[in-house]
Design goal:
Elements: E1 5-8, E2 14-19, E3 25-32, H1 46-53, H2 63-71, E4 76-81, E5 86-93, H3 97-109, H4 115-133, H5 136-148, H6 162-167, H7 170-180, E6 186-192, H8 196-207, E7 229-234, E8 239-247, H9 255-266, H10 273-280, E9 288-294, E10 299-307, H11 312-328, H12 333-350, H13 354-368, H14 374-382, H15 386-396, E11 403-409
Parallel strand pairs: 2-6, 7-11
Antiparallel strand pairs: 1-2, 3-5, 3-6, 4-5, 8-10, 8-11, 9-10
Helix pairs in contact: 3-8, 10-11, 11-15, 12-14
Length: 410
């Protein structure tokens, strides 16, 4: 059972901690319920740009001092941006935990967005875009978001566009933060050998002075989906394809059964149905996988593969055939048992990573108000029956509801 502690400061910031006595590393970070879907149309890419700019100067530190603060003691400082979250996090030896806590607080709440640094980082992000555009297996997955969530903020690329990124100024960051940052929708999470009481004292030392900020923000819900089939010619040597559609939201009771279904179809195991049917049996792909991402109001199911241009039609047909089997043929008792054991094993191994555990706790507290213990998730997995999986497959994996995005060599 996940043994964690939570403390809410008077300003609304929640502190979540798990003590792991045998580790010498302290993983910690601020996770905020802010992401690219919260950008206005003219702000596309601003959340990700903020992630970069947090390392470029605060009221008391220049860029070099931020970078050097933890690196000089063998630690790591990093960040990420998703559609619904921004996270600043670090990993250090336990004796440097307070140093990392203070630094993370500084970059999260006291960034000053120096104009000269904005100009420099603008170039870095434009290079990041170019790198991603030169990697079709990454670019097609991001572009598929716009196919499924067309006209909605969830469809926008997290990096933004060259036009939007080229125009951001200091005031844009300040406006975005002012509109979205709220102390009751952010959390500090940590996993280390420190006792919870000492972590709370640090939180009171560094976070008590943060003023209470309460913002009411209504995210635009995703309501309208129309299946599309799009083929784009590019200067590439291999055809790339993504197939998918909207799926269940984060708090939908069908989320875990569908996650298991996706795992059976194209999860990380070499025994996934798509891997066995398309790679092992026919040798048509090097990589083929299925993914399921959840958001607060919807989800996204997708399958990705790359193959020879002349094999694109055949490979697509094999993928659709495997999805049809899931819709029409219930799993036998042994197949169902194996699928459950495999998923439970994968989830348990994921929780072995203390950094991953730290991030998962923060995200879970923000999204669900709790961290669900592994044994409760296991109980839900054990209760899944094959008939339920067939019903879900027929609800989501309907061929007439699928969208297709193909990149083909010109």
């Amino acid at each position: 059972m996940l043994d964690y502690h939570i403390h809410t400061l008077p300003n609304g910031i929640r502190v979540i901690h798990k003590q792991v006595s045998h580790t010498k590393i302290a993983h910690s970070g601020f996770i905020m319920d802010i992401g690219s879907r919260d950008e206005l149309p003219q702000e596309q890419g601003l959340a990700h740009f903020w992630e970069h700019m947090a390392f470029k100067g605060t009221a008391k530190r220049k860029s070099f001092h931020i970078i050097n603060s933890l690196e000089s003691v063998g630690g790591e400082l990093n960040a990420y941006t998703t559609k619904e979250k921004i996270c600043f996090y670090s990993s250090v030896l336990d004796k440097h935990f307070e140093r990392s806590f203070e630094l993370l607080t500084d970059i999260t709440f006291r960034s000053i967005f120096p104009e000269k640094e904005i100009e420099k980082e603008r170039g870095v992000i434009l290079e990041e875009m170019s790198m991603y555009l030169d990697t079709p297996e990454d670019a097609i997955v991001d572009e598929f978001d716009d196919v499924v969530f067309s006209g909605h903020p969830l469809g926008n690329n997290i990096l933004g566009s060259k036009e939007s990124v080229s125009g951001f100024m200091k005031q844009d960051f300040l406006n975005f933060i002012d509109r979205n940052l709220s102390t009751d929708t952010l959390a500090f999470c940590s996993v280390s050998n420190w006792p919870f009481e000492k972590v709370v004292k640090l939180a009171e030392k560094y976070l008590a002075g943060i003023p209470t900020i309460t913002k009411h923000r209504d995210r635009v819900p995703f309501l309208k989906y129309e299946p599309k089939a799009i083929t784009i010619e590019k200067s590439i040597s291999q055809a790339h394809c993504v197939i998918g559609c909207p799926a269940y939201a984060l708090n939908d009771d069908r989320r875990i059964p569908f996650f298991m279904l996706v795992n059976i179809l194209g999860g990380p195991g070499m025994n996934s149905r798509l891997n066995l049917a398309v790679r092992e049996k026919h040798g048509l792909v090097y990589t083929i996988d299925a993914n399921y991402s959840t958001y607060i109001d919807t989800g996204l199911f997708s399958i990705y593969f790359g193959t020879e241009k002349k094999q694109l039609k055949r490979t697509t047909s094999l993928v659709l055939k495997e999805m049809k089997k899931l819709r029409e043929k219930p799993l036998g008792s042994l197949q169902l048992h194996t699928a459950k054991e495999q998923l439970m094993g994968q989830l348990a191994m994921a929780e072995e990573s203390n950094m991953g555990l730290m991030m998962m706790m923060g995200k879970s507290i923000l999204d669900q108000g709790k961290v669900e213990p592994l044994n409760e998730i296991f109980d839900k997995i054990k209760s899944i029956d094959s008939g339920h999986l067939v019903d879900i497959a027929n609800d989501v994996l309907r061929e007439d509801q699928l969208s297709f995005l193909n990149y083909v060599p010109n």
